[in-house]
Amino acid sequence: MRFLQTDRLLLRRFGEGDAERLIALDADPEVMRFINGGAPTAAEAIRIDILPRFLRYHAAYDHFGFFAAETQGEFIGWFHFRPGRDASLGTELGYRLARAAWGRGYAVEGGRALLQHGFAHGVRRAIARTLVANVRSQRVLEKLGFALQGEVVEEQFPGSDRRALLYSIDRPDPPSPAPNQA
Predict the structure, then answer these.
(1) Domains present along the chain, CATH in parentheses
(2) Is 123:171 a contact under the CB 8 Å cutoff?
(3) Strand pairing of 2-5 and 65-71?
């Protein structure tokens, strides 16, 4: 199930047994603050929709999908690196981390590993979106080398203020070597 390994993180493919981890992650109002105003994701939605969708990515793609993030054997959240909703824009990077993992550089470390892996396997451009109000995620994207492309309306997340920033990064020439993968 291992996908990528960094100095501190293991990014692995999700399994059927990860539902409870996802439910606990999405139960924290601070984690969900910029997703849906702080409401938890319904446990049944995770079991019958979200986790099966994550698993379908693994069946469909070798280098893309949703990946559980662990440090020292502890689940701290997840990352995704997948074809974007608008494929012409690029491959989309995203993440959701437990509050205990915030401010420790995990978002940058996991994001960098996925970008390097993607660029080494043919991805030419990656994109990311974050709500205008989510300044911490903007800093993560800037540390990863993403450039601001402009403001968009984020249709995926409910809420009154769905103004978001679209960022992109192009593959360096030549592409960086991929991090360790299993």
Answers:
(1) 2-170 (3.40.630.30)
(2) yes
(3) unpaired
